[in-house]
Structure prediction request, 171 residues.
Amino acid sequence: MKRILCTGVVIAVVVMLFSGCAKMPDEKLLVKGKQMESEQKFTEAIASYDKLIGKFPTSPLVPEAIYQKALVHANALQEYDIAVSGLMSVLEKYPENRVASRSQFMIGFIYANSVGDTAKAGEAYRTFLKKYPNDELKPSVEWELKYLGKDIDDIPELTTLGDASEAEAQK
Prediction:
């Protein structure tokens, strides 16, 4: 009898360990969304992120799903208003989450490089510097602010890169 009980306990422990190693449903949806993005199946990626957000509203992965969904809208679909709205929702609902600073940066980046609204871009970047003064993206934000509204040909760091490429090509 003891042997049967011990075997049952061992089996239960093994099952618990293996099931604990499996990905949770919310994590599977996030991974699936990213996979769909890599396959350029953007509608499916958005659907996967939406499913995660809807089915698991308290999941710690929701802010990242909202962020990733916003990036799909911005980068793949050029739906900048929808993208900014999603990024703003990350900032409003999850201000302490690790993707909040990325969201603030991307708002500025979208306004500067896709929409062409330098006033809103500058405001977003300055907000970034106030809220996240020690973030690893700070140098990128400072660079963006330094050259905000300038033509690519007027940025010395980029024109010297072009000169180096031309010199290399002529060899």
